[in-house]
Amino acid sequence: MNTKKSISDNHKKKLETVLSVVLPVLVFIGMVAYLVFYLLNHSPLVLTNDSFYRQALVSSEQSVPLVTHDISGLYVYLLHIMLLVFGNTPFGGIVLQIALFFICLLLLYIGMQAYTSSIPAAVSMALFGFLAVYLQYVFSLTPELFFMTFCLLGFCFTGIIYRAIKRHKARLASRHVETNVDKDDKKDKEKEKQDKEEQEKEKPDKEKQEKEEQDKEKPDKEEQATPAPSEPLPNPLPVPKKKSRPTMDFGYQVKEADMKFDIEVKDGDDFDK
Fold first, then answer.
1. Over the stretch 143-152, which tens digit does the pLDDT of each residue have?
2. Are the beta carbons of 114 and 160 closer than 8 angstroms?
3. pLDDT tens string 207-243
4. Is residue 69 part of a domain?
């Protein structure tokens, strides 16, 4: 039973390992195909909200105007760097949004896998990727995906901590079980050792008793083997079994008081005449 259980556990672990690799890869491939199809059918791109894009445009001025001091300001700086690389075109911002989108997918998968398993993590990743609510942020140069990246980063970090604590508890539990098993094995070994010692102590006494019994039986056997001069020699040949003589009993039992057959005769009694 234990071997069958270990084999099934190994198969389960292998299946989980395969699914943890295959499912996210399939979701990523599906998302890439969807985004490519969308870009091919919606070119040239039209931005619905271009306020952050206008702030991040590369100009003769060396610095970017700092409108806000929160994550939105960081997003403008990041978008400005992408425009320095790709030029003042919305394509650079779309590349940034796609990169942030896939980073969110990866962080969501890692966090969900830490809290649950590979299949729920892949399902949540697919829902996040294919829902139109989240896809609209990919093609609008707004900092929602940048905010979501930080949120999912915290979610992933807490998931990793949770998984580490869970594994630590499992290790402690397994060690506790192993120590209990070791204690039981030690007790069993000590008990076996005590039983062996007791058996070894009793063994000489038993041997001594058996030897004394054998010594007592030897003279009897010798006496039986050597018959007296007046007795016949034992017959070595097989003889028929002795028949038990039949006995007969009476149905009426005579009392002991009536078992008197000596009748006293008075003087002058002539009973025989």
1. 888 888 999 9
2. yes
3. 667 777 776 665 555 555 566 667 776 666 777 777 7
4. yes
Domain assignment present for 117: yes
d(CA 163, CA 271): 127
Task: Tell the residue number behind the tokens 């979701």, with chain if given.
Answer: 27
Q: Determine phi and psi for 261, rounding to 5 degrees.
A: -110, -5
Residue 131 host element (H or E) = none
What pTM was computed for the model? 0.56
21 to each of 16, 102, 131, 196, how far by Cα in Å? 9, 16, 22, 57
Residue 87: which H helix or E strand, with range?
none
Integer Cα distance of 129 and 122 in angstroms: 10
- Residues 6 or more apart whose CB falls under 8 angstroms from that of 234 comprise 227
The total domain count for the chain is 1
Question: CA separation (Å) from 235 to 225, 228, 230?
Answer: 12, 15, 15
How many CB atoms are closer than 10 A to CB 24? 20
Beta carbons within 10 angstroms of residue 6's beta carbon: 10
**Alpha carbons 266 and 97: distance in angstroms, whole number:** 153
Q: Which domain holds residue 124?
A: 2-163
